[in-house]
Amino acid sequence: MSAPAGREAPAAGRDGLEDAMPEDAVPEDGSPAGSAGSAAAVGGGYGESLFEPWKPGEGERIDLGSLAYDGFTRARLRALGAGPGMRCLEVGAGTGTIARWLAGEAGVDEVLAVDRDVRFLEPYAGGALRTLAADVTAPDFAPGRFDLVHARFVLMHLPEYRQVAARLCGLLAPGGRLVLGDAVDLTTAGPPDTPYRLAMRAMWQALRAGIGTDVDWTPGYPGLLRELGLTEVGAEILVPPLTVGSPIAAFWLDTWERTREEMLATGIVDARQLAEAEASLASGTAADLSPGLVTAWGRLP
Known about the structure:
The protein has a seven-stranded mixed sheet, with helices on both faces. It is built from eight helices and seven strands; from the N terminus they run αβαβββαβααβαααβ. Helices cover about 30% and strands about 15% of the residues. The protein starts with about 55 loop residues before the first helix and ends with a strand. It has helices at about 60-80, 95-105, 160-170, 195-210, 220-225, 245-260, 260-265, 270-285; strands at about 85-90, 110-115, 130-135, 145-150, 170-185, 230-240, 290-300. α1 (about 60-80) packs across α6 (about 245-260) and α4 (about 195-210) packs across α8 (about 270-285).
């Protein structure tokens, strides 16, 4: 997830995927080569059939997720040594708030911010921050070697997540760190079937059917990184509170609104139950857990 252009929200890696562009068209200055109109569909349709970046308010929706998660991500990257002397790759950069933080406050030498659509990134390109409209699942995706590779809310939308994780691992310089984060759902197991929980289950099923999103595997991130040969593997989870007026509550309300038709089509939740779930989020009375962010990291020997 990421913030819309022009807003200094905390950063996120967009809950979307990267953009496709010709091999010989690599914009390093924020050019519009990666506009969504020319993007190839990746990950079953994220940004194509749902959450299209050109739709009004999509940047603001992403920004709400950024406000909820970015402080957590920045603290983890800082703890792993993000700073001067590093070359960084930010995958699924969205509007680039993490990339901007790396290039600015963290003071890394270079950040390559990659996304399927770079329109939100373009105003910030320059200096240490470069942009690239690209698809990380493409066979010719090989932007170089990096001391830090970070992707958040990306692999959960890709059925080939294991292969993509391996590819990102292959972009590390010796001693480099891979940091991956995705949603972990805490609402699908156990009673009661409140309207809020039914709505969440309907949303995940709709996203799986529509764009291939799958969060069932994300608790296994630490094991996946060990399988890739990384050392010093660690993981942690952030679950933002569903308090009244919180960014994460507003994020889910907006997400449900944008996927309403698909959610109702699952049959898991009906219109009345969805309205009750929305009311509980808006009033701060959901009294439940938000889906969290699981972040895992490892070091290439």
